[in-house]
Specification:
By secondary structure, the chain is α+β, with helices and mostly antiparallel strands. It has four helices and four strands, in the order H-E-H-E-E-H-E-H. The protein has helices at 3-25, 44-50, 72-81, 89-99, and strands at residues 31-37, 55-58, 64-69, 83-87. It has a four-stranded antiparallel sheet, sandwiched between helices. Helix 2 packs across helix 3. The longest helix has 23 residues, at 3-25.
């Protein structure tokens, strides 16, 4: 296999993996989401509050907060308020489990 063919195959594979990962991480529909703030911006708590969302969990002013999406416009408001990334409910539950938070009582 030539060098250019190897480069094309590697680039195609990595591009496909990135698209699949982004598709899995993007929120869809209603439910819990993780709001990740930018390091140079406001904390995640302020981002959710400015977007008029209900804060489920935030730990000591960190960059990650859990909130609940009730409509698709809320996600756009989060980005306008300064969110760096809004992750899907599976990421939100993984973040909660990682830091030892039980979401059964929070929702």
């Amino acid at each position: 296999m030539s060098r250019s063919a190897k480069f094309f195959a590697a680039t195609y594979f990595l591009g496909s993996c990135v698209l699949m990962l982004l598709g899995a991480l993007m929120p869809s529909g209603n439910g819990l989401v993780a709001v990740i703030a930018t390091p140079w911006g406001k904390p995640a708590l302020e981002v959710v509050a400015q977007a008029e969302g209900r804060i489920i969990f935030v730990k000591d002013g960190t960059w990650v907060a859990l909130t609940e999406v009730t409509d698709q416009e809320f996600i756009a408001r989060l980005y306008k308020s300064g969110a760096g990334f809004v992750a899907s409910s599976s990421v939100a539950y993984a973040c909660a489990r990682w830091i030892g938070v039980s979401l059964e009582r929070a929702t």
